[in-house]
């Protein structure tokens, strides 16, 4: 996002947080706002003229707010209506960035709800777990990546897989991600899991091991990585038997390969270099 859009999103985020915080039932309000913002984005996706009009900087804020209210005001509850009005009043760098801002705000609302419910860490773990599941289930991932399939069809397919197995917040976020692909189901879900970790004030370490880590091992590893990187770490772990032993750790663009497979690969490379001489 460009500077104007980042500033607009920050300002609207403040109002969103306040609306949720001051409501009688913060969890229900957060869930409602998040769900309704995604519905608003669906309509913006369908109506290019509306998308352009509510981000048109040649119009004054009251005009943009009026357009947003005329089209969407009677389709959402009052808290969501206030968020949409605030978004319309601010200046965004482009209609595309306004749309993305509303997606981000919808996610933020749901994550606020998860935090109020004490489920934020669970949502993070479930979203990453879904990304690992899809990485393993190639046929399902292919169906969810099908560009000829409608968003509703793909959401229905994923819902049939995860219904009742994750929190309502995880389900809502996952279905939103699948319906609005950026890179692909696996990477998009992992990216939202990373956003949740950042909201919790943590940096993600993706850890692949030959055998599943237990809670004690995860806690110990998180502590060691926190000492190395100087910040709290969230461990997103997955099992990869092909590593044979040890682990591979990814923090941002940095990779630490301490796996048995990696050691064998390096030994072979060293042997080949020695033989070449």
TrEMBL record:
Keywords: ATP synthesis, Cell membrane, CF(1), Hydrogen ion transport, Ion transport, Membrane, Transport. The keyword Cell membrane applies. It is found in: Cell membrane; Membrane. GO terms for cellular component: plasma membrane; proton-transporting ATP synthase complex. SUPFAM superfamilies: N-terminal domain of the delta subunit of the F1F0-ATP synthase. The keyword Metal-binding does not apply. GO terms for molecular function: proton-transporting ATP synthase activity, rotational mechanism. Its main location: membrane. It is a peripheral membrane protein. This protein is part of the stalk that links CF(0) to CF(1). It either transmits conformational changes from CF(0) to CF(1) or is implicated in proton conduction. Belongs to the ATPase delta chain family. NCBIfam families: ATP_synt_delta (TIGR01145), PRK13430.1 (NF009967). This is ATP synthase subunit delta. The lineage of its organism: Bacteria, Bacillati, Actinomycetota, Actinomycetes, Mycobacteriales.
């Amino acid at each position: 996002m460009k500077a104007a859009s980042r500033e607009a999103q920050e300002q609207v985020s403040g109002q969103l947080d306040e609306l949720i915080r001051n409501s009688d039932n913060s969890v229900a309000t957060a869930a409602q706002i998040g769900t309704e913002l995604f519905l608003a984005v669906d309509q913006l996706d369908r109506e290019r003229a509306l998308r352009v009009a509510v981000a048109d900087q040649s119009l004054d804020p009251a005009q943009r707010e009026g357009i947003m209210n005329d089209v969407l005001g009677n389709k959402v509850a009052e808290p969501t209506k206030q968020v949409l009005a605030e978004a319309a009043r601010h200046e965004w760098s482009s209609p595309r960035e306004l749309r993305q801002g509303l997606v981000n705000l919808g996610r933020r609302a749901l994550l606020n709800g998860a935090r109020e419910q004490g489920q934020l860490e669970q949502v993070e773990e479930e979203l990453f777990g879904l990304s690992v599941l899809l990485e393993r289930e190639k046929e399902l991932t292919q169906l969810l990546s099908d560009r000829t399939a409608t968003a509703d069809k793909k959401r229905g397919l994923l819902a049939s897989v995860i219904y009742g197995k994750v929190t309502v917040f995880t389900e809502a976020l996952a279905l939103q991600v699948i319906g609005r692909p950026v890179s692909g189901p696996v990477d998009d879900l992992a990216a939202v899991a990373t956003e949740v970790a950042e909201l919790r004030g943590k940096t993600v370490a993706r850890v692949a091991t030959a055998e599943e880590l237990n809670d004690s091992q995860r806690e110990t590893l998180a502590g060691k990585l926190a000492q190395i990187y100087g910040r709290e770490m969230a461990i997103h772990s997955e099992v990869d038997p092909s590593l044979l032993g040890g682990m591979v750790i990814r923090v941002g663009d940095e990779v630490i390969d301490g796996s048995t497979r990696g050691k064998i690969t390096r030994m072979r490379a060293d042997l080949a270099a020695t033989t070449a001489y």
